[in-house]
Amino acid sequence: MSTQDITAEQFNDTINDNEIVLVDFWAEWCGPCKAFAPTFSASSDKHPDVVHAKVDTEAEQALAAAAQIQAIPTLMAFKKGHMVFRHSGMLPAKDLDGIITQIKDLDIEAALKEQAASEAE
User: Fold this and answer.
1) Catalytic residue among 20, 22, 23, 33
2) Catalytic residue among 3, 8, 19, 30
3) What residues does the Thioredoxin domain cover (predicted)?
4) β-pairing, 20-26 with 74-79?
5) Structural domain count, the chain
6) What pLDDT is stored for residue 81 in this prediction?
7) Do the Cβ atoms of 63 and 27 come closer than 8 Å?
8) In CATH, what number is assigned to the domain containing residue 99?
9) What confidence category does residue 1 fall into, taking pLDDT thresholds of 50, 70 and 90?
10) Cα separation of 120 and 109, whole Å?
11) Across the strands, what pairs with 56?
């Protein structure tokens, strides 16, 4: 599966309608973003069960602001609609693979129950 560009209008449906979604916030003028793009694209081929979405922060400035993007590239990962990972800066392919493996292995329901319990204390 290849990467897909998404807009603000598509963002919520994309993260809520898919099991696991990685979102790469980038811009055309950003050198590190361009350097990370082939790694992100290769990951989409290696993990076809994970949606690899890209948000152009220049075209989608309101979405980037709502996501509190302060540096690019920024990678966000969602599982069942919940953000489970966020990182600003480039990631080597092996690190990205490791993160995807951890997200696949994550029991999101148990993590949410644990978070709710700790917030109630």
Assistant:
1) 33
2) 30
3) 1-105
4) antiparallel
5) 1
6) 94
7) no
8) 3.40.30.10
9) low
10) 17
11) 26
Asked if 92 is an active-site residue, the reply is no
Q: For residue 78, how many other CB atoms are within 10 A of its CB?
A: 23
Residue 80 has φ and ψ, to the nearest 5°, of 50, 40
Nearest residue to 21 via CA among 96, 79, 75: 79
The mean pLDDT value for 26-39 works out to 96
Count of alpha carbons within 13 angstroms of residue 112, beta-carbon side? 9
Domain that holds residue 53: 4-120
Mean pLDDT on 83-99: 95
Q: Which residues of 18-44 are buried (b: 16+ CB within 10 A; e: fewer)?
A: bebbbbbbbbeebeebeebbebbeebb
Our answer to whether residue 19 is catalytic in this structure is no
- Of the chain, the percentage scoring pLDDT greater than 90 comes to 86
- C-alpha 112/C-alpha 44 separation (Å) is 27
What tens digit of pLDDT does each residue of 3-26 get? 899 999 999 999 999 999 999 999
